[in-house]
Queue: 3 jobs
Job 1
Amino acid sequence: MRRFFADTVLINPFIGAGPGMILYEKNLYASLHVATGFQLRISNSVFLHTQLSYHVNLSSSINNNVTASIGLMGIILQRKKKNKTILSNQAVTAQQAPTDIDRDGIVDGEDDCPNDPGPRTFCGCPDTDGDGIPDNKDKCPKEPGIIEYIGCPAPTVKMPAPVIKIDTLTKTSTIDSITTAMNKLAEQIYFETDKATLTPASTHSLITIVALLKIQPFSLLQIEGHTDNTGTIERNVQLSEERANSVLEYLVSAGIDRKKLTIKGFGATMPVADNTTPEGRAKNRRTVFVLYK
């Protein structure tokens, strides 16, 4: 018997053919038969079976005949299918969990300094001196420096102090001449990197500026602070104000009336040179005096 579909379908038609035996009046007769029908699935192991058969008797004692049958058919024993494990010819590579040797939360494959913990901002590298330059790119990792010098402090360049003849200015002093002299001296006012602390190299210029202010009567002195474009806008404005205020405090400590002094921080908004070169940035980091009569 040949079924058209698997036993899982609801209605499964079939056909069949083959030899058989017919019991007729207590005698057995050989025959050939063909059959067709369908089975109706009631459950996974019980089916309603209907069949229509045509029998061709091989003996002349009986005639050919047609039979019809209907009944229930069930599966008593069902062989369990063995689970087959199919292995592909492709090798299975066990994936090892990513390692993080320095335990900084950045896996070693993405960590530029896998043996030293550091923030993700610096790709896992530390910044020992806190100058904003990670140690793996810092030539002086234990000493704060600036980007222009690859993390090292800017070299101290001994510039000749500007020659200001105070006696000459006393005789022919004007607001403009005093202001020009003060701004010339201001070129030698220096601060520590990313700080508002005056360096000792600024002392000569500041002393001379105090002397000039005591020569020329004035109503107001505005001290302007300027920076290069390194860092954020907010930080540059803050730093320029703090540096201008450091100059103000020095002048007050030297006897200049605080009420006649004011400060203004411009950050990097008023450059006088190209910020793409170290020389240009150095010129943009400056203090400017505006004197009012």
Note: The longest strand covers residues 27-41.
Job 2
Amino acid sequence: MCLDARDPYCGWDRKQRRCTTIEDSSNMSQWFQNITACPLRNQTTDGAYGPWAPWQPCSHNDGEGTSTCLCRSRACDSPPSRCGGKNCEGPTIEVSNCSRNGGWTPWSSWGQCSTSCEIGFEVRQRSCNNPSPRHGGRVCVGQSREQRFCNEKLSCPQPIFWSSWSPWSKCSSECGGGVHSRSRNCENGNSCPGCALEYQACNLESCPEVRRNTPWTPWVPVNITQGGARQEQRVRYICRAQLADPHELQLGKRKVETRFCPNDGTVTCETDSLVEELLKTPGVRLTGSGWSSWDMWSACTQDCAKGYRTRKRTCTSAEGKSVPTACRGSPVEYQDCNPQPCQAPNSLGVRGCWTVIAISLPSHFSRAPVHAC
């Protein structure tokens, strides 16, 4: 082309295979010109397509397979572009009769259920690429996704949890320190962590002190002289404790009172000093304890001139064991007996003898030996 340009500065470089000036040529022996006429002006021509060739069978590969179609082509030669003109624009080949309808792939397996129990959903899918539609073919008809219920008959396990705490129970003691409790339940099972029962100290303030005296026992002769004068003695108990209920009072001090009675009857019996002895037996109130039936009355302490007799009962636990301090009330009762006057005493010239007797007292108190003639 440059040879026909009739440009004195332009030549063809055979080695570089392009138009160059003589200065840009690689070798002067490889550069030549062909100037036989003066240069022509306004020779620029844009390229244009020629007519389509007839349709012919052909093979077409669209990346998913090769199929037989009808094809035709055209060339950019009517005219070709020259002297810097534009090349042809548009397709050089047309393909026809290659349309293909789309087809579904098989359904996939059902996916994992959306819940592990009770009603949920599971999904399966398919794709319209078996084959894919192309060149104007129909797309697949139908749904590409299906879902269905699952686990609708599988019940979820109930949650296991503690119920709310119940109110605190009544304190076991109104004062002096007791215990009360509260409870809770393990709902829907029995594996709740922690305890179902809770205990707490209550009513820690001290109980008021309570004092009570038992009745005096009847007077009992303990020392009779040869002349007929005698000493008599009676007993009572002074009990004290810090208790919420005064009826629970069981323990205390034993008080002994002695008096002297002359034999002529002109002077009343005189009371001597009191003797007190502290009994330190601990007392515990036991649930389920109770009194036995009363024993038979004992023999009267005197044959005349008014004596007394006693009867006893026993405090026992639910297991049948003796627990003297666990029951309310007295374990012994006293009763007067033989109130008739005595006959005249036998006047002997010898001194009377001393005999040891014992006063019957409650089983949880000490026994005091008493002498009488």
Note: The longest strand covers residues 230-242.
Job 3
Amino acid sequence: MSALDKLTEELRQKAAERFISVETFPGTALRDSITIALCEDDHFRDGFLRHYLSAFYALEHGTPSDKEKRHLVLGFDCEFSRHGVVELIQFSTNHLIVLVQVGLLGTVPEEVIELLEDDQVILSGVGCINDSFFIQQSFPQLMIRPRSFFEISNVTWSNAISKALDLNQLSDLILGVEKSELKKKSADPWKARFMDKGNIEYAARDAWLGYNLCRKLYLTLTAQNKSSKKKESLYEWSAARIATVEQNKKTRAESIERAAMEAEAEREQLGRIDASSINPAAESVDDVIEQMRKRAATTTEDDKDKKKKKENEE
């Protein structure tokens, strides 16, 4: 029996002791995975959630050191009530998917909050940053401050892989996996004490796709990067991509602010120029300044024409 099989069997036994729902999905993309649904306070005793997510991740990536075990990249997703309230939070490695029924619990367990706020845990998905905002809005009293999110569409867009922003399209394009259909049997299926197996598969697959899309991009893009001397781990690569996105946002914000300041200074120097005449599509400082100068030249010519006309009239 492999180490992964032993860990899976251990999890099954521990789940049975705590009356945790366990599901498998033979014949699907999730056939090698096990899904557990956590919906009672007892399920979060003794660090149960973090322990097994870390254990499965470490085995899958061959990262035995304590330091590396703290570094996780997890698939992440949320499901909502018809009123837009978060009722289910999902986390995934390749072989373990965890569904946390926060709607049924009426709160977000401390162990889940720790995962969301841990800067050594990267949560990957499509629309995952928006999901984090919805968690904050759904449970404002908890003052949750999610930290590290790997937005799949940022990477596919910046690497000219796809401009799609939809999980279905990206999964089909990159993994060749289609998303399952939601099989609602009630208005809010995520608060059911025993969720329908079809809905469990739907929710589990969303998180599993978030993880596997990130992993596939990592394998593909690092293989293409021949200049790299050191092989980065999935965590290191994901963290670097997040840092790049944040730096690009910061640089663009600074550029826009600088452009606005320089344009204002130029406007004051050039005189009577209507700021509304500047094309809002301008993307750089040079574009703004060039428009200002053209406008100034036009204004100067108009003034000359008016002066000449006045002289002729006199």
Note: Residues 244-313 form one domain.
